[in-house]
Amino acid sequence: MTTRLPLRVEPSPGEWWRGYLLRVAAYYGVHPFNLLGRLHGIDAVERRHLRWSGIAMPDDVARAVAAIVNLSPVEIQGMHLSVFAGSALNFAVRGFEDFDPALAFNVDRLPLGGAGPLVKATRDRFCPMCVHATPGYRAASWRLQVHLVCTRHRLLLKGGEDTAVNAVIDDAVVDSQCEVLQRLTPSEENAAFFEHLHAQLASSNGQWRQNLEQNVLVAPEQVLDTFRLSVERVLTPGYPDYQGLAGWPSGIAARRLRSPDPAVGADVPSDCLPHLLPMHLFSPGLSDLLHRATIRHARAISAVGASMCATGRTLHAAAEGLPSRRRATTSALFLENLIQLEKEGRAEQFWSLCAAAAIELLRKGTNYRRRELVCNDEDLYLVATAAEPSAYVRTVRTWLVDQWACTYTSSNVRPSVLDGSIEHFDGLSGPGMREALERFLQELTA
Ligand SMILES: [Zn+2]
After folding, report:
1. How much distance in Å is there from the Cα of 173 to the middle of ligand 1?
2. Which of 186, 243, 394, 444 has the most neighbouring CB atoms within 10 Å?
3. Ligand 1 center to residue 143 CA distance, Å?
4. What is the rounded CA–CA span in Å between residue 200 and residue 244?
5. Distance 279 CA to ligand 1 centre (A)
6. Is the pLDDT of residue 210 over 70?
7. What spacing in Å lies between the alpha carbon of 139 and ligand 1's midpoint?
8. How far apart are CA 314 and CA 304, in angstroms?
9. Which of the four pLDDT bands, split at 50, 70 and 90, describes residue 108?
10. Distance CA 259, CA 315 (A)
11. Can you tell me the distance from the alpha carbon of 137 to that of 390, in angstroms, rounded to the nearest whole number?
12. How far apart are CA 436 and CA 384, in angstroms?
């Protein structure tokens, strides 16, 4: 039978559960194992039970423990590393119940790899000044590999009594660390931030990913500089060359690349985003910038750029809107062309044109998915030719797909796309046919 402790020991802000347990044990003058045994009803407490504490706790266990230590279950959960699930950590592979101290498996290693980049050392890292103020205090975030510096005291977190490393902590490093700590609240945006940050750190030096907190004690200036640069790179979206993404495989880089500005609209209907950017939005600006690519590739790159600006999604996610066989090539071409533009100092111009195109696509709200479905219909073809009787038959069919539905043409209508005459044809006959088709579709819907 477990009984309530007589008094409530007040948790400190940001305190970690394992540190709190040790403080409570010290307060009552009992061995921590004794306290753990009482909290979880374990007969023979071992070190592993303590090691398992503070990571995640199932809700029913938290309720039982809360009653004993005079805290609310929410206060207890708030001291566990699971509060960083959905930002710096991801427990998707591991369930919280895997870290229930009462069920601690008889294995030497904690299965922490499944939760994200946590400090693996058994010894705590701490800020000496913070601990001086509250003896025994441990912050939960000190267990994150990406918490390297106490921003309040401008000190490197120490690994133990014997490691007396002093490093100059400049403003830039403090700013980077503050940015990281401010993003610990779980959200989709913050999870993406940490995912990218971890990838940046891994790419800077594969080993630091494994042991960032150990390396910072060996070569602090170097590690802190890499840390600062990695944070900066994550916070400078849209510039793959600066972000170091140029050296990454394009499939991986595409999952990190976003447009520099926040999304144009919330909950953008994907129907209004075409596969190929319509000509009136594509030329002259984007067609000039992307002159190295074929017109069709350049229009696809521009359409993906506009989609990224509209939705705030990554290049990879925006390319998912394309037919499946076009995705990988378009992503790779997008990166290649944008990196080239960035080297020429014209990436900003590219993004501002894509953003303008995105605003226009959302304003117009044309349903391109519907146009794709109907562009090969005989009725539509007849309406278009009636509006433009002198036009060559195959050119009209190509125009309907390439210029009106703004999607990829099948092989039997491609020649005029390849030689570029479809754009010329659009300039001459496009306006009349568009008007006729719009009227026709309105009548159909009415
Ligand atoms: Zn401190």
Report:
1. 15
2. 243
3. 14
4. 8
5. 58
6. no
7. 10
8. 10
9. low
10. 8
11. 84
12. 7
Using the mean position of ligand 1's atoms as its centre, give its distance from the Cα of residue 21 in Å.
20
pTM of the prediction? Answer: 0.88
Query: Which of 429, 430, 322, 319 is closest to 372 using CA atoms?
Result: 322
Contacts of 243 (CB under 8 A, 6+ apart): 200, 233, 234, 236, 237, 256, 257
Rg for the chain, CA atoms, rounded: 29
CA of 149 to the centre of ligand 1 (A): 8
- pLDDT for residue 428: 86
Distance 96 CA to ligand 1 centre (A): 29
Dist CA 286 CA 350 (whole Å): 7
User: What are 147's two structure tokens?
Assistant: 């918490």
Q: Which residue has the tokens 């602090």?
A: 220
Centre of ligand 1 to C-alpha 327, Å, is 48
Q: How remote is the CA of residue 375 from the centroid of ligand 1, in Å? A: 65
How many CB atoms are closer than 10 A to CB 351? 21
Q: Do 166 and 172 touch, CB atoms closer than 8 A?
A: no
Element (H, E) at 156: strand 155-156
Q: Where does the pLDDT of residue 416 fall: very low under 50, low under 70, confident under 90, or very high at 90 and above?
A: low
Residue 309 tokens read as 């600006």
CA of 155 to the centre of ligand 1 (A): 7
Question: What region does 116 belong to: left with phi over 0, alpha with psi -120 to 50, or beta?
Answer: left
Omega into 284 within 30° of 0, i.e. cis? yes
The Å distance, Cα 132 to ligand 1 centre, comes to 9
DSSP H helices in 78-219 = 128-133, 171-182, 188-204, 206-218
d(CA 300, CA 286): 11
Angstrom distance (rounded) from CA 421 to CA 399 = 10
| CB-CB contact of 180 with 231 (8 Å) | yes
Per-residue pLDDT, 424: 86
29 Cα–ligand 1 center, Å: 26
Q: What gap in Å lies between CA 335 and CA 354, rounded to an integer?
A: 15
Tens-digit pLDDT profile for residues 391-409: 888 889 989 999 999 999 8
Q: Which of 341, 406, 323, 415 is nearest to 368 (CA)?
A: 406
Other Cβ atoms less than 10 A from the Cβ of 379: the count is 10
Residue 150 DSSP class: E
